[in-house]
């Protein structure tokens, strides 16, 4: 009998493979989460996130390597300053992004010690876990819709999926609705933390790692 494989079908061809580090520090006897505000002129500019990025098949052997490498590059720290505690899990976003979330401490006494990469990071800040426990995420929803076509820059209709060629029901020639997708939001003094980052925080707070802190 074939053994069950704990894997994600389509991982290599359906999703943009990325990894983040849910970054922890101890300041004043409290555990804090470290956040970045992305530079304004990059993808998803000015949004708040954890250190991380996409898998590089040349530089990384695993997505854990990705999380560590990207954190070092963005925060300006060395590999020796990162201590991985474990893996929170895998998040698959409806936009086709797969995020492997790792948990790790960084050894610094102040965020002023960080030599952040200004090409990617506008600023860095921290918030204690106690703040998130006292301020639960607000929950909203987005409606997911599947489009078998789009209009190009010349307003010409381009089909992704040739429904007629396969004599499929006509209803699939038009967009159809998927499920509602929950979106979590933490309004903070540093800006709004939402989307994938907020979802990771929400899950982390109930994990065995956070419950011990």
CATH architecture of the largest domain: Alpha-Beta Complex
The topology string of helices and strands comes to HEEEEHEEEHEEEEEHH
Q: Give the overall pLDDT as a whole number.
A: 94
Assign the structural class, choosing from mainly alpha, mainly beta, alpha/beta, alpha+beta, or little secondary structure. alpha+beta
In one word, what is the shape?
A: elongated
Total helices: the number is 5
Beta-strand proportion: 35-45%
Q: How far apart are the termini?
A: 42 Å
Task: State the share of residues found in helices, binned by percent.
Answer: 10-25%
Runs in which pLDDT lies below 50 for 5 or more consecutive residues are none
Which short descriptors sum up this protein?
Nucleoside Triphosphate Pyrophosphohydrolase; 213 residues; alpha+beta; 12 strands; elongated; 41% strand
List the helices and strands and how they pair.
Blueprint: H1 11-14, E1 16-27, E2 30-38, E3 48-49, E4 52-54, H2 63-75, E5 82-93, E6 97-106, E7 121-128, H3 129-134, E8 138-146, E9 149-151, E10 157-159, E11 176-188, E12 191-194, H4 195-205, H5 208-211
What does the model show?
- The chain is an alpha+beta fold.
- It folds into two domains: 11-136 and 187-211, Alpha-Beta Complex (Nucleoside Triphosphate Pyrophosphohydrolase), CATH 3.90.79.10; 142-177, no CATH class.
- The protein contains five helices and twelve strands.
- It has helices at residues 11-14, 63-75, 129-134, 195-205, 208-211, and strands spanning 16-27, 30-38, 48-49, 52-54, 82-93, 97-106, 121-128, 138-146, 149-151, 157-159, 176-188, 191-194.
- Strands 1, 2, 3, 4, 5, 6 and 7 form a seven-stranded mixed beta sheet that branches. The chain has a three-stranded antiparallel beta sheet with strand order 8-11-12. Strands 9-10 form a two-stranded antiparallel sheet.
- Strand 5 and strand 6 (97-106) form a beta hairpin.
- The chain is elongated.
- The mean pLDDT is 94.
């Amino acid at each position: 009998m074939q053994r069950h494989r704990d894997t994600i079908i389509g991982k290599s061809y359906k999703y943009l493979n990325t990894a983040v580090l849910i970054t922890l520090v101890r300041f004043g006897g409290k555990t804090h989460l470290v956040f970045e505000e992305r530079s304004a002129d990059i993808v998803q500019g000015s949004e708040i996130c954890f250190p991380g990025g996409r898998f590089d098949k040349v530089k990384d052997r695993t997505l854990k390597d990705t999380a560590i490498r990207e954190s070092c590059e963005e925060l300006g720290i060395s590999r020796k300053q990162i201590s991985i505690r474990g893996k929170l899990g895998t998040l698959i976003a409806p936009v086709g992004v797969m995020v492997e979330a790792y948990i790790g401490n960084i050894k610094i006494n102040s965020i002023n010690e960080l030599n952040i990469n200004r090409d990617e990071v506008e600023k860095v800040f921290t918030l204690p876990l106690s703040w998130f426990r006292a301020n639960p995420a607000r929950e909203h929803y987005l409606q997911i819709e599947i489009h078998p076509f789009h209009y190009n820059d010349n307003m010409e209709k381009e089909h992704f999926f040739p429904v007629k060629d396969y004599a499929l029901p006509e209803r699939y020639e038009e967009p159809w609705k998927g499920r509602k997708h929950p979106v979590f939001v933490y309004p903070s003094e540093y800006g709004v933390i939402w989307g994938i980052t907020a979802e990771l925080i929400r899950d982390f707070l109930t994990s065995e790692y956070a419950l011990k802190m």
